[in-house]
Amino acid sequence: MGARPSEVVFTSGGTEADNLAIKGLFWARKRPRILISAVEHHAALDPAHWLADNQGAVVELLPVDAQGRVHPDTLRAAIDANPDDVALVSVMWANNEVGTIQPVPELAAIAHAHGVPIHSDAVQAIAQLPVNFAESGVDAMTISGHKVGGPMGVGALLLARGVDPVPVLHGGGQERDVRSGTLDAPAIAGFAAAVQASVDRRPEQAPRLAALRDDLVSRVRQAVPDVILNGDPTDRLPGNAHFTFPGCEGDALLMLLDAKGIECSTGSACSAGVAQPSHVLLAMDQDTARARGSLRFSLGHTSTQSDVDRVADVIAVVVERARRAGLT
Ligand SMILES: Cc1ncc(COP(=O)(O)O)c(C=O)c1O
After folding, report:
1. 152-171: per-residue pLDDT in tens?
2. Taking the domains of the chain in order of start, what are their residue ranges?
3. pLDDT average, residue stretch 138-145
């Protein structure tokens, strides 16, 4: 991934890596403003909000366009307002709900032009997109084992040389003294193998997934003509298709599809079960009803054409039934 061994700080997963980057850089920089995109995963948003509630941080949510992208001019204007006050910037590589890819190298160049460190959560991206830590220009990058087919409970913060966040965990001084604690070597070995396999296989997997996803999108559109594809139509994670089915409750769709053996997700998988419209869709200027009628299909290395065929075969009937059940 373009990181030197000394730039890999192992953690217990993406959540810890995001917390270390955001809290640690905020504490190290001793400046108030945290510029963070409005569509981040809660693992990045919540530590920023916690710092605002408890440590005097000023969190500025960078707005996104209707496709979920932070425009470079938006970041430039936010930093320019007072460059000396900015502790850090955090913008994810690709969104976990709608799949939109952010212009991270461009954003990194803007942050660096002002001497501000930038963190990117690349948890969703590394198996599906060419992500190179050194070339991206970011100072800190979050990755996680279980999103690349590796074990749960292990991840890493890639941390450029000379970037020194204040530790969240203090103790034995492991991992550059940034993350103390005896490392879970078996989990790390599994994580390393999974990252290696996913990076090696990406050149054939990504186009295969994109073709399956495109087929899924076009057949869902044929079956449900008023369906809306959320996120960027092309510049998105190859395995992501995120739809709004107008007039439906996402949870009703989820249950009807589950009964037919199809697993998908409303909102972020990590926050499913919490009956709130997705903050990502709301940030994309969607109204609550549209946000609540949304569903994400994720394709991965085990997905096949017959999985897509199955969705295409049942989606019209399922949507019809969910519409009759109505919005609550
Ligand atoms: C974009 C993103 N960041 C962070 C996380 C949290 O990672 P972990 O579950 O390894 O703590 C997730 C998990 O889904 C994610 O999708």
Report:
1. 999 999 999 999 999 999 99
2. 5-194, 203-325
3. 98
DSSP of 132-193: -HHHH--SEEEEEGGGTTS-TT-EEEEE-TT--PPPSB-SS-TGGGTB-S---HHHHHHHHH
**Given ligand 1 and candidates 46, 121, 144, which is best to mutate, with the most ligand atoms within 8 Å of its CB?**
144
User: Cβ(155) to ligand 1 under 6 A?
Assistant: yes
Fold classification of 5-194 is Aspartate Aminotransferase; domain 2 (3.40.640)
DSSP letter at 234 equals S
Tell me if residue 248 is catalytic: no
The answer to whether ipTM exceeds 0.85 is yes
DSSP, residue by residue, 39-83: T--HHHHHHHHHHHHHH--EEEEEP--TTS---HHHHHHHHHT-G
What's domain 203-325's superfamily in CATH? Aspartate Aminotransferase, domain 1 (3.90.1150.10)
Task: Judge whether 5-194 and 203-325 match in fold.
Answer: no
pLDDT at residue 61 in the model: 98
